[in-house]
Amino acid sequence: MKEHSKKRYDEPSLGVEDLSQGLYKSNLKLGSINQKQSEYFSNISHDLRSPIAAIRSAIEYLEETPGISTDDRKNLYRLIDKKAASLEYMIDEIFLLSKLSSNSTIVRPVPLPCGNYLEDFFFTNEADSKFKDVDLVLDVPMSFEYTIEIDPNYFDRVLNNLFDNALRYLGEDGSITLSASTDESKTHVIISVSDNGSGISPDNIDKIFERSFTGDISRTPSGKSGAGLGLSICKKIVEIHSGTITCRSKTGSDHGTTFAITLPILKD
């Protein structure tokens, strides 16, 4: 009778021990999530305050400075307009990432020939004046007839962000290459955007897709200051398409960066 009682008391104690360890691990995980969220909102708040402060300063100067010249007034108006556009862009980024995180059904993939889609995207960008001093290279085989399922509107955003990131860090004789291939099993296509820019620091390469990370401003498209959500949005869009996105980068003499997107091939 005593042995039976002892066994009954020992079994719950083991369950409580396991439960305690599980709760401890969960608390550690929640603590890490909370820290990242805190860093994210702290960075967002800082980035939102910056253009607001510039707009306020410009308005105060206009109000308090008598006899301001026409040229100075125009310059201040341009500054206000630029900072307002930057603020609008950041708010749009935050809103989009929130929508993607809470409702992936806003992305509506359709079957598309991968080669044709990439060609259309490439030649549209080639005609853009911001790339006039850049060597744009399309490296997609003529017979690349694999079909993928993507929402072209959202996927355009991914590739545009990668092109703009590359453009920001190009020097003289800068080049951007859009290429496509398949994996060895021919079950996935690999879409790559490569550049010969200055590269991303090895200390930052593992963090660039995180929402809270602002250590590398390559995450923000050229000409826009923002909360650094560009690559977080890219990653979320790619994952909604059942894909992955990775980055390889080198600094120094052999510098350059490659973002590779892997997507499943649609079977017949």
Automatic annotation (TrEMBL):
Signal peptide: none annotated. Keywords: Kinase, Phosphoprotein, Transferase, Two-component regulatory system. Its EC number is 2.7.13.3. The keyword Metal-binding does not apply. It catalyses: ATP + protein L-histidine = ADP + protein N-phospho-L-histidine. Residues 43-267 form the Histidine kinase domain. GO terms for molecular function: phosphorelay sensor kinase activity. InterPro entries: HATPase_C_sf (IPR036890), HATPase_dom (IPR003594), His_kinase_dom (IPR005467), HisK_dim/P_dom (IPR003661), HisK_dim/P_sf (IPR036097), Sig_transdc_His_kin-like_C (IPR004358). This is histidine kinase. It comes from Butyrivibrio fibrisolvens.
